[in-house]
Amino acid sequence: MAKAKEYIWQWQGLDISWSVEGYPSNKSQSILLIHGFGACKEHWRHNQKYMSNEYQCYAIDLIGFGKSSQPRSCLKSDDAKPGEFCYCFDSWADQIFAFCLEVIKHDVILVGNSIGGVIALRTAQKLQEKCVGVTLIDCAQRAMDDKRLKEQPYIMQISRPLLKSIVNQRWISRLLFANATNTSVIKKVLSQAYPSGKNVDENLINLLLKPSKRAGASESFRGFINIFDDHLAPDLMTDMETPVDLIWGENDPWEPIETAKEWMASFKCIRSLEIIKEAGHCPHDESPEEVNSLLLKIIQATK
Predict the structure, then answer these.
(1) pTM for this entry
(2) CATH 3.90.25.10 is right for the domain spanning 5-300
(3) What pLDDT digit, counting tens, does each position of 244-273 carry?
(4) Given its phi and psi angles, is residue 105 left (phi above 0), alpha (psi -120 to 50 degrees) or beta?
């Protein structure tokens, strides 16, 4: 089996870091792994090699994360300047869409964790028949979106304009980012995201911490915390014809399993829901053996 190779792809003047494992085969599709917020392509450290036993498997760093470019953020309310990037689901989906067409060049199965799931769904819309399947692993439900504001406590509803005026200030976002990107905070977040504690190791901490020390790292954070009106997974799945499968950590502290069950019952495009016992928000890394087996089964059933 081929060892993972890492490359830089130029897109719209930006460097996009990606890797691939496995040889091209006679199978009609490849797999593309899309990480979540604050992560990188190496977050698939226990999955990419396994999948490459059967398929050519790609992983990619979203713009703003990992080793990809981290351009200055432009909010939707800003007047865009040269070199700026609007960190939003359409922009990231444009990145993945172009990568599929220019690099992979044939049918693809998209696998996304957290916000990577929303990006996978939006990309599937753009790719149409070129995307033959989507697997969502603890897909982000985006409870803070303005379209869901009525679900929030009243105090949150009336304070939303103030919150927006605060977090769009670059000095505020930089301060918040600096406070969030240290070893002690990352360990605390991981203790929530990985409730079983499995596979929380120094390698994981370092692969999350290292990109945050790059000069432009705070810009993607500023962009993300200012996403208040963007795509929601249910809206994207409403008329979707591409088959969708769900894998969910039973004890995800941020994306309730109950919502995944509601999605399963509500959307025709969803074929299956697999629940990973004791796992949290990142079951692909916390319980990789079980998730890998499920992923392979799902992909083999996708024609």
Answers:
(1) 0.95
(2) no
(3) 999 999 999 999 999 999 999 999 999 999
(4) left
